[in-house]
Design brief:
Strand content: 25-35%
Number of strands: 3
């Protein structure tokens, strides 16, 4: 599972959503996604995309 996390410059998490939801939102509302990305850059936020490995899956070699 992958997720997108937006953090402020102090490191506090503002938004945490699954990557799939973020991609669907960007496809359906590209203008709003662009405005959000610009706002994140202007306000010195960090956008982090991270992969979370679930415990029941074997690690990849």
């Amino acid at each position: 599972m992958r997720r997108v996390t937006i953090k402020n410059k102090e490191g506090k998490t503002l938004i945490e959503i699954p990557l799939t939801l973020g991609v669907v939102g960007a496809v359906l509302l590209p203008t709003l996604a662009a405005i959000g990305a610009i706002a994140a850059l202007v306000t010195e936020c960090t956008i982090v995309v991270e992969k979370i490995e679930e415990a029941d899956e074997p690690p990849e070699s």
